[in-house]
Amino acid sequence: HGTRHPNEIGAAEVEAFLTHLAVEGNVAASTQNQAFSALLFLYREVLHQDLGPIDALRAKKPKRLPTVLTKEEVRRVLGHLSGAHQLMAKLLYGSGLRLMECLRLRVKDIDLAQRAIIVRDGKGMEDRVTMLPDSLIAPLQEHLQRVKRLHEEDLAKGYGAVYLPYALDRKYPNAEREWAWQYVFPSDRLSVDPRSSVVRRHHLDESGLQKVIRQAAQRAGIPKPVGPHTFRHSFATHLLENGYDIRTVQELLGHKDVKTTMIYTHVLNRGGLAVRSPLD
User: Fold this and answer.
1) Per CATH, domain 1-62 is 1.10.3730.10
2) Is 5 a catalytic residue?
3) Which candidate in 19, 79, 146, 213 could, as Cys together with 57 as Cys, close a disulfide (CB 3.0–4.6 Å)?
4) Are 155 and 200 in contact, with CB atoms under 8 Å apart?
């Protein structure tokens, strides 16, 4: 539209532009959505105009199957990890946790007696309970002993106050220093919390685990794109392979809609008919 001012352009031009992106520009759905959001912000927040309903042709979102490792590949990748990183990766695979769910675990969320993990405020802000593998009980106990010693050292130096969500620090003034509220996977250094300027020990950064898992997969010779979420995909797929009900897997993963969980049946190439190739 040349050098025309946005004030002179309305819904029809916005629709034409978004359709152009999808049809002639052949952009991804996420790119078109980003352009649409930027235009909505411009008109609503800057120009104070309501564009009304926009009926543009939308770019198709590709349906991609998740990357899944075999059990042997999981074993090989885990074998190239060590320490807290290996323990976290084993939780991602053994409990089906998302990356940030793992990093944000607090001591009180681990129920060793019941062999369970309580995932607080998962995707959709809903709590859920998932399994804690028997094989991780002893390593987790040893890890928590080391973390507790670190916390006690912080307390002795006048630190040890962890971040609490939802203003819980005002409701429970002493909770931020209590052992139960500490992160299971704390950072190896103290830092200033930009929200409050308090010196705290935050949880480990997600980029660190992403990097070491990627490197471990390369060293293990896995010719697939592997990241933390690959372990969650593998968790779901292997449970279905072992014959567990899809509703059970849905609950463990915290999916609201079983259709989201159904993607793993496609990964298995079962599709309900368990079709075998004529070559086999």
Assistant:
1) no
2) no
3) 19
4) no
